[in-house]
Amino acid sequence: MKEPLFRRKSARRAQVRPPTQAWRDGSPPCISRGVLAALRSVPLAVDEAIHHVQGPGAGAVDVFLGLVRDHNDGRAVTELEYSAYTAMAESELAAVVREVEAEWPGARAAVLHRVGRLEVGDVAVVCAASAPHRAEAFEACRALIERVKARVPIWKRERGPDGVSWVGWRP
């Protein structure tokens, strides 16, 4: 049986368990100056991102999970494959995280993105942001995923009954 992500300590307080599945593929995340921004070839640990953004000044944590869906642009999707130029993509992911943290005072942000083959229902991206108040946490998390989608050079190849097609980043 899988351990729950949140364990209740009291009726008012939930504690996130420390990340236990981080770096299973042997690759460390891109952590510089406290930034968690990484590409991973194994399933993403949501609790790793949450743990990274928590802190004594955080009154709220917002998390976005991007999942592989079974359709896109009216076509069925059975699986997809993400690829990226790792050094460039992780550098841009880290830049986005730093920007978000600078724009929302007191915010912390983290982003993890999958590469490789994924099936319908798999988690493709995890974005987490904390802030002193919920409104700022929501705004920071939304900005994080929007900027990742717009700027980070990650390419997606979708496979379905109609064949294969490339979708993704364009300069």
Explain what the structure shows:
26% of the residues lie in helices and 36% in strands. It is of the alpha+beta class. It has a four-stranded mixed sheet, with helices on both faces. The radius of gyration is 16 Å and the shape is elongated. The N and C termini lie far apart (45 Å).
Low-confidence stretches: 1-33
Average pLDDT, rounded to a whole number, is: 85
Morphology call: elongated
- End-to-end separation in angstroms reads 45 Å
Count of helical segments? Answer: 3
What structural category arises from helix and sheet content?
alpha+beta
Number of strands: 12
Strand content: 35-45%
Task: Output the strand order for the largest sheet.
Answer: 3-8-10-4
- Helix content range of the residues, please? 25-40%
Main beta sheet strand tally, sense and closure: 4 strands, mixed
Secondary-structure element series? EEEHEEEEHEEEHEE
Radius of gyration: 16 Å
What's this model, at a glance?
This protein is α+β, with helices and mostly antiparallel strands.
